[in-house]
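protien #1 (seq + structre)
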Amino acid sequence: MIVSVCTTSIAIFISKSIAIYFSVSYICSDHANGTTAMNKRALSTLELDAWLEQACHEIDGQPVLARASATQQFRGDIEGTGQLEVLLTYHPDGSASSVGLERVVGRVGGRAGSFVLEHTGCVEDGVAKAQLAVVPGSGTHDLGGLRGRGWFVRPPGRAASLTLEYEFMEQ
């Protein structure tokens, strides 16, 4: 069986001025056949239409916590609109870390429906990068059974280049 290690960052807010941050690593594998290989690859651009951000926790000298809502357009092998909800931590050096969930309504591989992407990302030197995973069981209509993982890279002021390796599991 081939496995990989997945990591999720979590923030727990104890009060307005106290928060606990930690990362959880866990083993990921394909529950159906024991392999992590996907049989299709989608290449798309990801254009940001709207970004509404608000700081939610600020403490002098500490990383700023913010939440944002974004609307994005997928063009290419994935066509559609994504609605992203993201939590961010801005570090004093200008870099950032983020986690988010995005509902995508559109088409993948000629199939129509919706699905949810989990984002784990960062911004370094102005370049946004994220690892993506299709949330298991989130596919609807013709996208039922969709599973996958991928990544995107967004240089400052440009559309992101997105790659998603995916497959459809029998339901």
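ok now protien #2
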Amino acid sequence: MVVVDKEGKVDFLWRYQPSKNTADGVLMSYIKRNVFMPPREMILQPLRAYWLALAYQEKGDIDPVLLERMFRKAVYALEKHALYLCDQAGIDYPSNFYREAPIPRTLPLHVKNATVENGADADFSNFQNSLTTDELFELVGGEEFDDSGFS
């Protein structure tokens, strides 16, 4: 239930008690026992990355430049967490996600220059399997975003 009080604060109450042996139960137990971050932040950080920019877009009274920056920061946080998950599972990030229809992206300048100097095709889909983690971070922007809970 969501209620706005006299002070303009949003009071959001949510009680959830999944069975311990369900996926949600395992997830909630993990969040509660995490010692590196308070449970509230473990829940709010991914919610912000998923939904905050969309909430401001729907609200409609935000500068378009700020809104775009919010979207970029959200994508950066989500991609950084995807890299973290891939690292934890030993999954090759770029080739795993873009097999069918690669998403064209601008290559980092030093990568683009090296590709052109070598006479290779600068198409991202031909290059994606050899990107390093640092190059992927450069591709997604590297703008400041409080993503400490994702690593």
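The longest strand covers residues 2-4.
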